[in-house]
Amino acid sequence: MRATERPRGSLPDARAPSATSGRAAARPTRALRGTLTWQVATVGQLIDETPAVRTIELQVPDWAGHRAGQHLDVRLTAEDGYTAERSYSIASAPGEPVAITVERLEDGEVSPYLTEELRVGDDLELRGPIGGYFVWDGQHDIGPLLLVAGGSGVVPLRSILRHRQRTGSTVPTRLLYSSRSLPDVIYRAELDRDNGGGVEVIYTLTRVQPPGWTGHSGRVGSAMLAEVAWPAGQDPLAFVCGPTPFVEAVAEALVGLGYPPQRVKTERFGATGTGVAGES
Ligand SMILES: Cc1cc2nc3c(=O)[nH]c(=O)nc-3n(C[C@H](O)[C@H](O)[C@H](O)COP(=O)(O)OP(=O)(O)OC[C@H]3O[C@@H](n4cnc5c(N)ncnc54)[C@H](O)[C@@H]3O)c2cc1C
User: Fold this and answer.
1) CATH number of the domain at 145-268, please?
2) How far is ligand 1, taken at its centre, from the CA of residue 83, in Å?
3) CA 269–ligand 1 middle distance (angstroms)
4) Residue whose CA is closest, atom 4 of ligand 1?
5) pLDDT tens digits for 170-188?
6) Burial, 220: exposed, middle or buried (Cβ in 10 Å; 0-12, 13-18, 19+)?
7) Peptide bond between residue 129 and the one before it cis (omega within 30 degrees of 0)
8) Band of pLDDT at residue 270, cut at 50, 70 and 90
9) What is the tens place of the pLDDT at every residue in 29-67?
10) CATH fold of 13-130, please?
11) What is the reported pTM?
12) Residue-range domain boundaries for the chain
């Protein structure tokens, strides 16, 4: 991104953020080690997951390693010093190159830049990994795993699924993933490959179902969870991620089905919006 360009959004030019790229103006004044210290990463690969969603693989020289489910912060800096920071879940498994997957919000400040303007070779400021609660380390002493995602909330759950596979875990796992339509399903080819062999992938489509669709339709609620979720008596561990209203509704429903609250780990992707992050 050239310094004169700016991401789409409502900010005036002078306040538009940019990556700290060789093609951009700002650079951090320091890049110290440590998860809460900003450091410079380089974009290694860009993968279009859906028309609105892009995975950004990053080369991070001082990366300390991460756990499945953690996130990182990205900071964009404008020429006048204005900065915009956003959190992104880490999409890759521990041991894999750091990757994030970003869904473009048309009226957003940062996500349009990350999904449309960023190029391979650009530098990006980030800090992380962050978070010690919404993580799965491959515990084998627990019941089955229930993963529930709304829209881009599937990102940290994909890290968990990849970690499960890489560590040879056999913990029975179900992913219930809510998307607007089949083309909005992120990582679809990978998830379809994963389906079977101890992992069940269950989609629900909230807005558009293709002809002949025999899967679930509509929002995730108590009735759907009663059908899909592991019975509480099996001592399942649940990870729920997505837009705030989605996460709250799902967590409440799981507790209503007898899941102890401490067995329902939640990650809210923020904002008050409904449907913006891919779940209707
Ligand atoms: C821990 C954590 C992990 C996250 N991981 C991811 C991830 O893996 N992938 C990803 O795409 N996003 C993720 N997010 C959301 C991300 O941080 C940004 O909020 C998102 O990219 C929008 O930023 P923006 O600057 O484009 O939009 P903004 O300029 O911040 O907002 C634009 C508009 O959209 C609304 N809005 C913002 N975010 C959301 C949202 N999540 N849901 C509904 N409405 C919203 C705002 O209210 C506003 O109206 C995560 C958030 C958190 C807290």
Assistant:
1) 3.40.50.80
2) 16
3) 6
4) 88
5) 999 999 999 999 999 999 9
6) buried
7) yes
8) confident
9) 343 356 789 999 999 999 999 999 999 999 999 899 999
10) Elongation Factor Tu (Ef-tu); domain 3 (2.40.30)
11) 0.88
12) 13-130, 145-268
